[in-house]
Amino acid sequence: MSRRQGSAAVRQRNGRAQAPSVALPPVAATAPLRIAAGTLEAMKWLGVVLMTLDHVNKFLLHYQYPALYALGRVAMPLFVFVLCYNLARPQALEGGALHRVARRLALFGAAASVPFIGLGQVIGGWWPLNILFTLLVATLVIGLLSHRSQLHTVAAVALFVIGGALVEYWWFALAFAIACWLYCRQPDRLRLCVLLACCGALWWANRNMWHLAALPLILAAPHVEFKLPRAGRLFYWYYPAHLGVLWLVARTG
């Protein structure tokens, strides 16, 4: 009897014939969210239109039209989502895009502070900082979290706590931004639930639930495609410019 036949006989006598091992394929992670560039531009344009209507109603018409106020609550979640989608791209940190976005937000946020203060949107001379600074703090927090080290995480938590107290929409907008970033990186059910919860928590900033109307637009974005050219830095310029125009009209009207 050969050695192979003897081994088989021993396994048979022991009543446990061994099957060859099979290597199971690794479980693939959920692919990052994919949205067409034109669709992202459409979301930004929609946010600009809704924001402008809301600001005209607020600063020039003194909240005469409640429907415009309600529609205006949709703008901020759209801007936050588009920003965080772009920050979730793999090349955002390595290619320096995150740092460029942060510099632009700081520059144009500072420029917008003059008409923002002039329109009476601050308490005590400077607080809160305008929405571009909200997006700036969110960008910096996400940048720190991207490093995945204990030191960077501690710094991100500290910036979240301190920065959230200084900007519009406070910590609720920052939490929503982080949830959007995590979801765009890996759009699974758990992260979607976190995104929905953080969007609902914006009630503490808005004192209404109209911002939830942004969720169907966000969830539908990967499934539709618009053909719109990129507007470049137009959106950065538009925010301080339109506040400046509203300030002048309010002062001379």
Q: What would the keywords be for this entry?
A:
253 residues, mainly alpha, 67% helix, transmembrane helix
What can you tell me about this protein's structure?
The chain has 253 residues and is an all-alpha fold. It has one domain. Helix content is 67%, strand content 0%. The chain is built from 13 helices and no strands. Helix 2 (37-60) runs antiparallel to helix 4. The longest helix has 24 residues, at 37-60. The radius of gyration is 25 Å and the shape is globular. The model is unreliable at 15-28 (pLDDT under 50). It comes from Pseudoduganella chitinolytica. Keywords: Membrane, Transmembrane, Transmembrane helix. The chain crosses the membrane at residues 21-43, 63-85, 105-123, 157-183, 189-205, 234-250.
Query: Strand-residue fraction?
Result: under 5%
Terminus-to-terminus distance: 108 Å
What is the tally of beta strands? 0
What low-confidence regions span 5 or more consecutive residues with pLDDT below 50?
Answer: 15-28
Taken in chain order, the helices and strands follow as HHHHHHHHHHHHH
Tell me, what's the shape?
A: globular
Helix-strand category: mainly alpha
Instruction: Please bin the fraction of helical residues.
Output: 55-70%
User: How many domains in all?
Assistant: 1
Return Rg in Å.
25 Å
The number of helical segments is 13
Mean pLDDT: 90
Largest sheet: none
Transmembrane segments: 21-43, 63-85, 105-123, 157-183, 189-205, 234-250
Pfam families: TraX
Keywords: Membrane, Transmembrane, Transmembrane helix
InterPro entries: TraX
